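Our preliminary data section would be incomplete without showing what the modeling component actually yields. Below, a chain of 208 amino acids is followed by its predicted structure, encoded as tokens that our downstream tools consume directly.
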Amino acid sequence: MRRFLVFAFVLLALVAAIAHEQKSGLARDAVNHPVKRNIAEPEAIARKERLKLPLKDQRIVVMKRKRLLELYSGEAVVRTYKIGLGLNPVDDKERQGDRRTPEGDFYVFTRNNKSAFYLSLGLSYPNIEDAERGLRNKLISRAQHDAIVRAIKRKGTPPQNTALGGDIYIHGNGASSDWTWGCVALENEDIKELFDAVPVGTAVTIKP
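Predicted structure:
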């Protein structure tokens, strides 16, 4: 009986030692090779989710000072994109060649899927306010002013070749700096998503 008790005690001690070693080994392994958890910021998770198209009453708001473009569906912001602006990014556009990004209310008048800048959305610059200022400053004629006003009122393409300038687009090819001649530039993956979500006629507001 004594031999049996001694044998049982030794066996239990051996089992306890093995269990302790395994536990210690797992602890060391957890320190040296921590479990990778798929923890992402809420913004990153939301960014990976596909937009539910079509959007409801979609519109675009560009904030020049913040270098951000917001895409709205109704009253909700569904995307925020980083942007680059014109080489002279602070002031409102006034004339051809000033390299300023315009400010005010516009709309998308065309979509170009063969743009030299990947994809592009044409903005209705100059608008009526631009035309009136240009007429006061004697940059355009009365006939040019009236042509711009007519185009805006019918949601068409305003004249793009006056002294006020034109060819203002939201396009791709990078948002890391202010490098355009007055356009709003996005990263290619962002303009692709925006391009797919935005039809002709979409309202665009550009704020200082």
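The first helix runs from residue 2 to 32. Residues 42-207 form a domain with the L,D-transpeptidase catalytic domain-like fold (CATH 2.40.440.10). Preliminary results of this kind motivate Aim 1 of the renewal.
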